[in-house]
Amino acid sequence: MTTPAIRFESVSRHFGEVRAVDQVDMEVRDGEFFSMLGPSGSGKTTCLRMIAGFDRPTSGRIMLYGQDVSDLPPYERDVNTVFQDYALFPHMNVGDNIAYGLMIKKVDKAERTKRVDEILDLVQLSGFANRKPSQLSGGQRQRVALARALINHPKVLLLDEPLGALDLKLRQQMQVELKAIQKRVGITFIFVTHDQEEALTMSDRIAVFNEGKIEQVGEPSEVYEHPASQFVAGFVGTSNVISGDVALRITGSSQTFSIRPEKIHLGSMDEAVDSDMHSVEGNVRDVVYLGLYTRYLVEIAPTLDMVVVSQNLRTTSADVNSVKGLPVRLSWNKAHTSVLGGRGA
Amino acid sequence: MLNRLSTYLYRRPRLVLGLLLGPPLLYFVVVYLGSLFALLLNSFYYLEEFTGLVVRQFTLTTYAKLFTPTNLGIFFRTASMALTVTIADAIIAFPLAYYIARFAPKKIKTYLYIAVTIPLWSSYLVRVYAWKLILAKEGIVSWFFNLFGLQFILDKILSIPVIGGSSLSLSPIGMFIAFCYIWLPYMIVPIQTALERVPKSLLEASSDLGANPAQTFRQVLLPLAFPGVVAGSIFTFSLTLGDFIVPQVLGNSRFFIGQAVYTYQGTAGNIPLAAAFTMGPIVIMIVYLLIARKLGAFDAL
Question: For A260-336, which CATH class?
Fold first, then answer.
């Protein structure tokens, strides 16, 4: 196996009493699109800032392609960052912003102009070199920030929630574009986000952060289909997490498990259940018609609801609403349950 | 009743604007611009030397009098002083403002802020006279030099032609020190404000892109803080230009603009010449601001 792009060796970062990052071990592979996903305050941004060099670990080591960079200042690390607020220099035009890294490295003017034109082409902003950042839209600024980082051919590109300030349509478009650009340039991308959908869309692998620790690292499908902990099950998509006596009643074991709402079949009481299925009976407490699909809340035990999502393939709003209050049988394939270990279980 | 009045005003936003802006605008136009205009008008009259009366008749002879070697000397002297004080204050203020804006913990920041502005609470006259005592031949500065047997350095400095003198308290050097001290807060505050407005992420971005701290300072921080330096320099420059107390208390017999104006409009009763003298700093300030604009000082505003 090749040297990992980034390797965390039990890295911690404490701010006074707060353990923002707590004994994290992690490896980012060469050339992959790696997402650090988690709620705010989970330590993902601090990890990113430590890779960039804006923060230094309290303990542990950070390796960049095998070299210990823990104590190197940002300007001596071969990584570049796309900032959340883009951080474009307001007193320079787009071309000078993008060429900043090259200017610092004393690349000559002709070469600079040539490379700026090339990179502007890549981010689809040809002809914008003479504009000031204040004359650009949010999406355009974002591309300039990306170009300014990419032009230096860093070993690793860090992206700190770069799509957070964009509206939904633009964000989805940029997600696709970012992924395409990453494939084209072949640079390792480390992407910080709190948006699980974004992480699932773009990443080769995802690390889910919670309270300064990594809960799970894996491919998007793996993290989604087999969450390793209750936190992951709840944070990445929605999950029904069942434990204790109810779990015992359903699976014959009191181990906590999770099941995704869309995997559950909502059927009538007299429907037969296969032997490879788990099932439970309940009453439909509420029905929310959402156009594309319908969300049912089914009470399977006192004060315990399961969420069931079902696509409106053949049903209309009148059909789904008529189910309200009726007893139903929920069933799902045993293979779709994930037994949860780890913390919070 | 009050409700109906609010409703009435709510429906007429222009009236509200007029009521709010009217009085200050009136004051500005009548008192401020009016007096400036009166000044301009007076500078085109002249003083009949024989009778000692002001003749209200358009003439450029008063302005012509400004161009005697003595009066040109006054302008040159004052403008040079204002310029050196401004440059010195900018150099002293920047590191301090930088520390307050970027590094000082919140609590210390408040104290420093108070420390910077506290001199402004006491009378300017008292502070100028305090400097006279500090800089006098028997003052603490001389004493300090004497203590270490360094009197010869002070003598050497005072023997420099033009800016030297018999003692620090009677020389342009002394004036320079006092001016620098008195106007320093006016330089620190705008620079600090400008520095605080530079987002931290810009400095991080610069560093991220390979710039060492010196390069980041030169390429990012200084250009973005420059409007603050210019704002501060407008204060220090114009305040020095118009001041007549410091030259009076600490200077030698060579006049500064403020003293000339003071003398001509007072004892000499030559209001037109005093007015013409006053137009000097105004013209100098306009030139100064034009240069500042050319340097791009207002681009980032």
Answer: mainly beta
